[in-house]
Design goal:
Layout lengths: L5 H9 L1 H15 E2 L4 E2 L6 H28 L26 H17 L2 H30 L1 H9 L23
Antiparallel strand pairs: 1-2
Helix pairs in contact: 2-4, 2-5, 3-4, 4-5, 5-6
Length: 180
């Protein structure tokens, strides 16, 4: 493999986790494994299909936008084993700390709506809970170690899941103390 292709393959490899979370697990939860076909439940197709499709598109665009920011600004990938070298706080990150996972959550929720699947709705809540725990116990302490006060200031001003209406401007806020 030449050096020029290394960044491309590095990014492709980092998509393994989202593909598993959004495609493989939902398929296993909803498909008839004997036939390999999905078993949609569409009591309200005129609502389910457009709402689900819109949510999936929003989630996919959010995921792609954040990945692009990780590549261009953060100089890293979305994979935990190949993190960014710079803290990314622009774009959707100025509104919410975890827009990439929010994008994945939108796609899982969309699938649950599109397929009318309670199992996928359960997967949506479970995935959100596991990520919240992971962020609190592993990712955020790692970000504090890597980026110090820059991340502490960001964390103090940008919520984890519920987006700010106005984007956070890091130049307009005082830095928080390390206490608390």
């Amino acid at each position: 493999m030449s050096v020029s292709h290394a960044p491309f393959f590095r990014q492709i490899r980092s998509f393994v986790l989202p593909v598993i979370m959004v495609l493989v697990i939902p398929f296993l939860l909803t498909a008839d494994l004997t036939s390999g076909r999905l078993q949609p439940n569409l009591p309200l197709p005129l609502l389910q299909v457009p709402i689900g499709a819109l949510l999936f598109l929003v989630g996919l665009l959010l995921l792609l936008w954040t990945v692009r920011l990780f590549i261009t600004l953060g100089r890293g990938t979305l994979a935990p084993w190949d993190p960014t070298k710079a803290l990314v706080i622009q774009g959707p990150y100025a509104h919410v700390r975890n827009p990439m996972i929010a994008g994945v959550l939108f796609m899982i929720l969309a699938e649950s709506i599109l397929l009318g699947s309670w199992r996928l709705l359960g997967w949506f809540f479970f995935f959100g809970l596991v990520n919240t725990i992971y962020f609190r116990l592993s990712e955020e302490p790692g970000l504090v170690r890597r980026f110090g006060d820059e991340y502490l200031t960001y964390r103090a001003n940008v919520p984890m899941w519920v987006p700010r209406l106005r984007p956070w401007d890091p130049h307009s806020i005082e830095k928080p103390s390390r206490i608390g």
